[in-house]
Amino acid sequence: MDPVWKFVLLLAVCGSVTGDSAIPVGHLQPLGGHRPPDVPIDELHTIPHPREFWDKYVKHEKAVILRGAAKNSPSFTLWTDEYLKDNYGKLEVRLEGKREKHSWLPIGVKGIGRDTIEHFLDTYHDSDAYIVSQLPTDMYHEVLVQPCLTCGSFRNSLVEIDLWMSSNGGSSILHKDAFNAINCLYNGTKHWKMIERKYEPLLHKAWEPSREIGGYSEVNVHQVDLLQHPNMAKVRWSNFTIHAGDCLYLPKSYWHQVESVGDVNLAVALLFARLEEFDDSDCDTQKVEYTPLSDFQVMWDWPGFGNMTMGHMDLEMGAREQLYEMAEDSEEGLTQDFIFQLLKLEMPEFDDEFLLGKAERGFAALDVNSKGSLDSDDIKALDWDTLGAFILEYENQEPSNTELFEYSYTTAEEIMDMILKLAKKNGQLTRSDFIHAYMTQLGGTEKFGTEIFDRLVEGQDEDMIKIQDLTVEKLEYALENWLIRIKPEMTPEMDEEYQERMKEFDRKIGVPNVAGDAQKHTEL
């Protein structure tokens, strides 16, 4: 062990050198300052066979580094800025800020959090923009899938393919993702800090409804306050670096925090299902070799324009298996009313009218032969396009996946507040004052600011509005597209009731609830 870490470990056991036991070791230091990293991560220089990959790693949720596993992909050498602009420049991508949850979302030529690859590459060296997006399908043929995913249950388990790209550094929060992933780095360096999910009860996880599978910690990873978050001092962790050409197998719900460095940092993540068993029956006949991603079916793919489908559930384990069990359990089979009752159970914050509409549209997507009721054979016969159409109706759309994200990014309350403050200050509100404030104070775009002001002055000759004319009705009309997107939120009290009702429902139909996946900590 490094001498510095020996000293840190000694302090962790004995207290600070000043004898002040009230200040824990690692307090206000970056994540991991409380103790040295001591959870080993295997490093391999050859790709394991799918059976070995399952038996040693995926089955046991054990991370592994695959050194050099990305170097065979054409994308590793081809994807320079110039090549990407020339071949894929018009395709769109989703943007985030380099410091996750700590900055406004960047604005691209397609709006808040949306850009073209061409414009991003022209500006990203001097901006806060970071591509966190589904990979457009036109780019699939230049990405090779590692041999460990090319047979058995792995072959048909790809849920989503994501692209990550930034310049001059980026930093994530401490979080977990819903699915297993193989994350391959094509350019730059990534420093990973990882924590096994059995430590989740100690990570000061931000509250969210238990139906969610992902999640993040409230801890400031750059300056961990161990007085506010004392349980972090009990957490063991791993620390390692991924270089260009390396891949990492990141198990489902494995907590991690990542620092991206380098003039260009480019990665592709292959997200695959939360498998609970492995069928290797075709592994003796299927070629186990590097294979173009374009040869695989991906549950949620995206052409590079229009609404994305990031973050939706696994169409097999999350959708088909549960629908199958429901159809088996019900004497009437799966009906629209059954889906309506399930929605009422899972989304208690919404009213019946809203949920009935979702049930009608969702069941219509499934009932391709207009039978009115589906049995288990009907569910088995559904293709992914049909299951996907159902899920798009059943689940609520993530606003940042859409081209109209700005209606949800800024709230009607924030905009009303700003309008009234500006109007009170001068007795009136001008177009230039409003749009400038909307863009600089709320991070909005000129296009959407113009929409608001056009509605405020509709029917007037002047390009301004007096404070006495700012009625509730006029404000609500101007912000109609923001107001209709306000959704009720589930409260902790609702969530407690939801969990009890889901346990009862799961017992009835024999389907496990995959959302609440934190394991009880047994090492304290």
UniProtKB/TrEMBL annotation:
Entries under InterPro entries matching the protein: Cupin_8, EF-hand-dom_pair, JmjC_dom
Coiled-coil boundaries: none
Superkingdom assignment: Eukaryota
Record-linked Pfam families: Cupin_8
Annotated signal sequence range: 1-19
Residue ranges of domain JmjC in the record: 124-289
Keywords, alphabetical: Signal
Membrane-spanning ranges: none
Repressor among keywords: no
Keyword Signal (UniProt): yes
Any one GO MF annotation of this record: 2-oxoglutarate-dependent dioxygenase activity
Record protein name field: Uncharacterized protein LOC118428308
Organism: Branchiostoma floridae
